[in-house]
């Protein structure tokens, strides 16, 4: 997936100063997303990590317009979609699909698998008759590794991993360009997680898809993503390539998060030193924005902090 | 080492509309005093049912058809409801997975923590409240004195799990059973809770059974590990033996399918297929259909436990003297090399290398 081709990759998504407030202006106002900006390039997997309440799922839902953003811009292939009206939404939703976290709650229990998968085909009038519809459903079932006999069954007859495959087939039915996967594997068993991650990768390669992969499992995010953004309290703390974020983290929050990841290695665990994070440094009233510390590596910082981060980036190089 | 809990030949079946589900099929294990035993397995492998049977908390349609659970000379499976009541929450207590649902939303937390003390009648209300405050302080609720009258919704998820832990340890139990206590929590909070449990174990000298599906967590907390699959324990040993010298192909698969932070290979190893239906458990090794190393005998006969060391046993035909030598997956071989290296350097202890067949 690491597509290091020389030509400048095309921007598929541009998020600019996005804010998503709930109960805006009222005493119980929640700033779920507080001024974030980032781009997602065509063909890449962009990982978004953070703890619960960090705003990572809200970001995904705002991009696909399940929420109306409070302010800011979301551009899809250069066109601002943050303010388009309901009737125009159909067009871009065909290009952008979502895979949800809970494979038990995200499939209608009263619909047959083939109707779940074909719902998008019907809405977008992509098939002319039942024959064509069934053929397309079969094709999709093959693609996600389910059997064609499964088409006439109901969701309760399937295991978690199989249900997530149905969810993936549904998302792929309308031939989207961009898929938002919100914790697609966290409800699955360890031995099934790898199956689904491999499937997502294979499909990406075959269909040249772009992913926004939202998760809290840091080792899986590192594995699947090209670039990663770390989110905390509604803001992006750090953004860079997957290996930069993991091997050369700069922001103390990222360092703290990485130091807490449990690894299946007893020796490592015995010698592990957690780095606690004190978020008071975010509340000193200073204006911060994402600054490029070294090429391609951004950290939320004030103008003064930039040189400090640059110094610590250099320490990594000397090691 | 002194055994505090000894489970033998446990068999538990569930009656369902579809037939009888054989959830626990001949499980035996023991818990040593002062240690942490991790039981690892996927959903449906039977790990929760096993520990719930220790607590006498099985569902109505479950029945124990064989086995014994020995706790301090008493078989818990034969104990009367009244005897169990005096043990539960007193000598043996349990931490549940979800801190959101295991607290009473309408009761102040001080009272909830003191409740086990009052139920077991060990002290006056005033003393119980004082102890509750002490224990809340111990689990890291800052300013516990002033928060005794607060309700669960006034605390964060991590704090609520600390309160749940406070309830379970307020009687200084001898055995603490933690059923996925960190699964619902974020990694940073998870790390704090694990550190807390280790610290508490030293302070109140309790023995812990820790249930999880997260091998990373196991590596950090366990002294010994038992791996369950399809209602059976398929391998057990010290934490180093299981992580660095695993023998059962299912343990290989589990360890292999987790990306570590330095995994960069193109594909993750995925265990093919899905776990068997325990309405009709297979005759042989239940993992055989998903096992690339399966031999004919795996489909026909259940493998016995083979001894790897004095502390390490695995139920796989691959350890039979007549079995062909197989090459484990590359990542597992790497772990085994690391193990021999660590043993040679004296960084971890290795038990005596054992002989061929099982002799419990």
From TrEMBL, chain A:
SUPFAM superfamilies named among the record's database cross-references: P-loop containing nucleoside triphosphate hydrolases
Q: Name one GO molecular function term.
A: ATP binding
Q: Which UniProt keywords apply?
A: ATP-binding, Nucleotide-binding, Peptide transport, Protein transport, Transport
Pfam families given in the database record:
ABC_tran, oligo_HPY
The answer to whether the entry has keyword ATP-binding is: yes
Kinase keyword on record: no
Q: Which SMART domains match?
A: AAA
Question: What PROSITE patterns does the record point to?
Answer: ABC_TRANSPORTER_1 (PS00211), ABC_TRANSPORTER_2 (PS50893)
Report the subcellular localization: Cell membrane
Q: How does it sit in the membrane?
A: Peripheral membrane protein
Q: What residue stretches are annotated with the ABC transporter domain?
A: 13-258
Which InterPro entries does the record cross-reference, listed alphabetically? AAA+_ATPase, ABC_transp_ATP-bind, ABC_transporter-like_ATP-bd, ABC_transporter-like_CS, Oligopep_ABC_C, P-loop_NTPase
Q: Which family does it belong to?
A: Belongs to the ABC transporter superfamily.
Q: What is this protein called?
A: ABC transporter ATP-binding protein
Specify the species: Lapidilactobacillus gannanensis
Automatic annotation (TrEMBL), chain B:
Domain of life, per lineage = Bacteria
Report the membrane topology from the UniProt record.
Peripheral membrane protein
Q: Name one GO molecular function term.
A: ATP binding
Key words of the record: ATP-binding, Cell membrane, Membrane, Nucleotide-binding, Transport
| Pfam families assigned to the protein according to its UniProt record, in alphabetical order | ABC_tran, oligo_HPY
Compartment annotation: Cell membrane
User: What SMART domains does the database record attribute to this sequence?
Assistant: AAA
Tell me which residues make up the ABC transporter domain. Answer: 5-255
Matching SUPFAM superfamilies: P-loop containing nucleoside triphosphate hydrolases
In terms of CDD domains, this protein maps to: ABC_NikE_OppD_transporters (cd03257)
What family is this? Belongs to the ABC transporter superfamily.
Per its UniProt record, what PANTHER family does this chain match? DIPEPTIDE TRANSPORT ATP-BINDING PROTEIN DPPD (PTHR43297:SF2), OLIGOPEPTIDE TRANSPORT ATP-BINDING PROTEIN APPD (PTHR43297)
Q: What's this protein's name?
A: ABC transporter ATP-binding protein
